[in-house]
Amino acid sequence: MTDATDAQETAAEPALRTTGGPRRQPLMSQPPDDVESAPIPLLEPREGVPPVIATEAALADVIAAFAAGTGPVAVDAERASGYRYGQRAYLVQLRREGAGTALIDPVGCPDLSGLGAVLADTEWILHAATQDLPCLREIGMTPTRLFDTELAGRLAGFPRVGLGAMVENVLGYALEKGHSAVDWSTRPLPEPWLRYAALDVELLVDLRDALEKELDRQGKLEWARQEFDAIASAPPAPPRKDPWRRTSGMHKVRRRRQMAVVRELWTARDQVAQRRDVSPGKVLSDAAIVEAALAVPTHVQALMALPGFGHRMGRRQLEQWQAAVDRARGLTDTDLPQPGQQTPGPPPPRSWADKDPAAAARLSAARAAVTELAERLGMPQENLITPDTVRRVCWEPPRDVTPEAVAHALTSHGARPWQVEQVTPLLTAALTPSAPGGGEA
C-alpha cells in the first residue's frame, strides 16, 4: 500500500500504548514486553517471499488454498500513484491462517472475482481501507465485513496510525517502508519490493487482534464495528463534479475566461494522460496550467515563454495546448464557467458571521463542545463526528430543538448510532437559543 497515513498522522493523544497482543507463531523472534525497548526489525516473511501469481492456473490454486484457510484474511493492494493514470491495483497481497501469503498480479490476472467470492463471508483486515477498496472493487474483490486497523488506531487514540507506526507501537516490530511510493506497474517487480509487499500483510491479523482487545478495554469496540460496517456497506463514490476546479493553484485564477482556460487545458491533459496511461502531472503540471490561464496566450510563441512550456516541449505538444487555450478564448460569455463551485449544503464557515450570526454562534458552541468531548474520549474530532455534519446541523437546525430531533438530523446526515448517542446532548445544547454558550446536557 502507498501508506499515506504515515505522512498524515493524527494529533490525538493515545489512550494506551500497547505492546502486547496475540501473535501467530512462528514470528522472527518475540519482541520484548518493555514499552521503551527498541523495535525488532521484521526483515523476512515467515515462509519467505512467495512467487507472484500471474496465470489463471496459479490463481486457481490460490483460490482453493484461501477457501480452505481459517479466520480473517489480511488484504492489501499496491497502486502506481504518480506514475500511471487512475488508481488501479498493480499488486494484491493476501494472508490467511492455513493459506499463507499470496502475491497476485492483477495485470496477469485482471479478474479476481472468484477469489472475492470464496472470501465473501470472511472478515477482511485492511489498513486504511478506503484507500484500497476502490481499486479492489475494480478487479472483483469487495468485502462484506472488514476490520480497518488504521481506523481502529484512531478510535483507540494512538498518536500515529500509519501501518509502520502501528506495528511498532502495538506489536514491537519495525517494518521497512522504503518502497511505499515506487512505481508498482514495473514488470518484473524487484525482489526487495515483493518482500516489502509481503511484509505489509505479515502481521495484520496480529495487529487486528491486539487492537480489538484494546478497543474492548476502552469500551469502543462496538463503535469500531459500526464504523467498519459503514465502510463495507458504502456505495462507490460518484465521479467528482468539475474536477478541474481542484487544480493546484486555482485560487490565483479569478476571471471566468481564465477559468475556462484551466478547464480546457485540464480536459486536454486528462485525455492525453488516459490515452498514454501516465499520471496527468507527467503530461503537464498544474502550475503550467495556471500560468497559461493567467496569461491567456494568443499564439504558440507566447505560450512557449511561460513556465512549464519551455524549449523541451515539442512543437506538436505546444500546438495542442495552444488549441485548448484558443477554445477557451472563443467561448461566449454564457459558456464560461461560473466562479466558485456550486455545492449543496451550507456556505463556508468564514462567511457565517455576516450571513447568519445566530448560525455562527451555534457553530462556535458546537465546535467547542465536540473538541472537548473528542479530547476526553481520546480520538480525533473528525472520527467522533464529521465537521461537515456539524456544519449542516448548525446551519439548518431542527425547527424544534429536542434531543430526538437532533438525533434524527444527525442520522439523516450519515452519523452512526454511537456518534448520535455521544454528540446529540452536545448539539442539543449548542442549538438551543437560551444556551448560546453550548454547555453539555
TrEMBL record:
Q: Which organism is it from?
A: Streptomyces hebeiensis
Instruction: Report the InterPro entries cross-referenced here.
Output: 3'-5'_exonuclease_dom, Exo_C, HRDC-like_sf, HRDC_dom, HRDC_dom_sf, RNase_D-like, RNaseH-like_sf, RNaseH_sf
Comp. bias regions, Low complexity: 1-15
Question: Could you tell me what this protein is called?
Answer: Ribonuclease D
Q: Which residues form the HRDC domain?
A: 255-335
Q: Matching SMART domains, A to Z? A: 35EXOc, HRDC
**A Pfam family this chain is assigned to:** DNA_pol_A_exo1
Region feature (Disordered): 1-40, 233-253, 331-356
Q: CDD domains per the record?
A: RNaseD_exo
Recorded hits in SUPFAM superfamilies, A to Z, give:
HRDC-like, Ribonuclease H-like
